[in-house]
Design a protein that fits this description.
The chain has 479 residues and is an alpha/beta fold. It has 18 helices and 13 strands. It folds into three domains: 165 residues, Rossmann fold; 78 residues, no CATH class; 180 residues, Glycogen Phosphorylase B (Rossmann fold), CATH 3.40.50. It has a seven-stranded parallel β-sheet.
Length: 479
């Protein structure tokens, strides 16, 4: 079977998390051929792969959302749209109501437009936006509205106009642009479509936009509604939707997803791979670690602030942050400045490293993210028998506390963006070797029993086989 994996902002340009998940899935299925449809943010990423692609990857197609910057449109043309086409576009641009994505796909891929920017430079676009401003955004300056919506929608239009490789099955690993491309692939080629949603993409974008300085206050709702509209595209189009834990399923249903489509397939790790890792030679140091990309959504600043409090009570504590720093260089520099302003000692940023070289040496692991799905970093630490302190995001509470499984806690869960409770939890573990050992044992038992890598692979093998043969995927017991 030929499977097209559609990834946005992850594989193969970024390590860890969703990228590791994709890489593992492909490697464990040599019986299938894979096409990677990679959606990147910036054209400078082209060919800059962080992974050696498995031999069963037969094609990689790259598109970049900044491609529209160099795409000029012809101003002032009129394309004589039908009233239905105008209504569909108005819904997409923020007019409310359900978007008919099939009509949008057909219109934007028509030869009427030489390039996507042609429509957004047309009189038709001007008229639709003018009507939208008059009926819904009367207090917003029209010029600002014109350019804001244009910048918002043009990457989507460019994505829709790209060619889609033909495959037996399409698998989008998020909603957003990857979800729209998956729905487009099904629309063009008619093959089945799977969505795996690790974190809730639209909620993550909402959190980012609320905090963003680059979005003016009166445009925040417009941007947020836009990303929810993108998610709705694949929720409606997908044949099957996979999520990783029950709370995500509940949110998807709240957002309008058909419950009968949703199955739960947890992530998994091979616990045996994390046994007997190199241990730390010096036991006079309490080693605290974070397996994390240095980007804002991981909230490294809260981790640093909590460590500053830890350091006051545990002077022999050391913090090692294991993960790439180049993804957001500006944020990384801000983190380094915070280390300096807090006068912190014993903070190490390793950059990208083989995590197994470090994990065995850690006494405590920390995750300070603002948003997560079911983080592989937590599963890896649990497989290594290490206690974790995490924020209450994604499935972290379920991972550490279990769901009536008779196994004790594997760490502490603390509020998001609140460094004091995080620090107190870390200090409690620092002061009690017996508590660290107990929680580490619980972690290993839970991950060994409920989060097996082979179970994860087998579930997807069965899902691919059934959809590829046109059969209905049965509801999982975990539903």
């Amino acid at each position: 079977m030929r499977i097209c994996m559609i990834a946005e902002g992850s594989y193969p340009y970024v390590t860890g998390g969703v990228s590791s998940w994709i890489h593992s899935l492909i490697r464990q299925m040599p019986e299938h051929e894979f096409i990677i449809y990679a959606i990147g943010a910036q054209s400078k990423q082209k060919g800059q792969y962080k992974y050696e692609l498995p031999s069963n990857v037969v094609e990689i197609k790259e598109i970049f959302l900044d491609a529209y910057i160099d795409e000029p449109g012809k101003w002032g043309h009129r394309f004589r749209l039908t009233s239905q086409q105008e209504e569909d576009l108005k819904c997409l641009l923020g007019g409310g109501g359900g978007v008919n994505w099939g009509n949008i796909f057909d219109l934007l891929r028509t030869e009427k437009f030489h390039v996507a920017a042609d429509f957004l430079s047309s009189k038709d676009y001007f008229d639709i936006l003018e009507d939208l401003c008059r009926t819904k955004y009367s207090l917003v300056p029209f010029t600002e509205m014109f350019w804001t919506v244009r910048s918002m929608i043009l990457p989507l239009f460019v994505s829709i106009r790209n060619d889609i490789p033909e495959a037996d099955l399409y698998h989008s690993v998020s909603t957003g642009y990857a979800g729209v491309v998956g729905a487009l692939a099904k629309h063009i080629h008619g093959s089945p479509l799977i969505l795996t949603e690790h974190g809730i993409y639209s909620r993550e974008r909402e959190e980012e936009i609320i905090k963003a300085d680059w979005v003016k206050g009166y445009f925040k709702d417009l941007w947020i509604e836009y990303f929810y509209t993108l998610s709705g595209c694949i929720y409606n189009s997908a044949d099957q939707i996979v999520t990783l834990f029950n709370r995500n399923k509940e949110i998807q249903i709240e957002l309008g997803c058909d419950p009968s489509k949703i199955s739960i397939i947890p992530n998994g790790v091979n616990a045996i791979d994390y046994a007997n890792l190199p241990q730390a030679p010096d036991q006079d140091i309490i080693r605290i670690g974070g397996i994390v990309r240095v980007v804002p959504i991981k909230d490294i600043k809260t981790m640093l602030q909590s460590f500053a409090l830890v350091k006051r009570e545990i002077p022999n504590a050391e913090l090692t942050i294991m993960g790439p720093t180049e993804e957001d260089e500006e944020y990384y520099q801000e983190c380094l400045q915070m280390v300096g302003s807090l006068e912190l000692q014993d903070v190490i940023f390793t950059g990208t490293v083989p995590v197994k070289d470090y994990l065995g040496q850690m006494d405590i692991l920390v995750l300070s993210s603002i948003s997560e799905g079911q983080p592989l970093a937590v599963l890896e630490g649990m497989a290594c028998g290490k206690p974790y302190v995490t924020t209450n995001v994604g499935s972290c509470k379920e991972l550490l506390n279990g769901v009536n499984d008779g196994i004790g806690p594997a760490g502490f869960v603390t509020p998001v963006m609140n460094y004091e409770p995080m620090a107190q939890s870390i200090i409690k573990l620092c002061k009690s070797p017996s508590l660290r050992e107990e929680m580490g044992r619980n972690a290993l038992e839970r991950v060994s029993r409920y989060y097996k890598h082979q179970d994860f692979i087998t579930s997807y093998q069965q899902l691919y086989a059934l959809l590829g043969e046109g059969q209905q995927w049965p509801a999982l017991a975990s539903n």
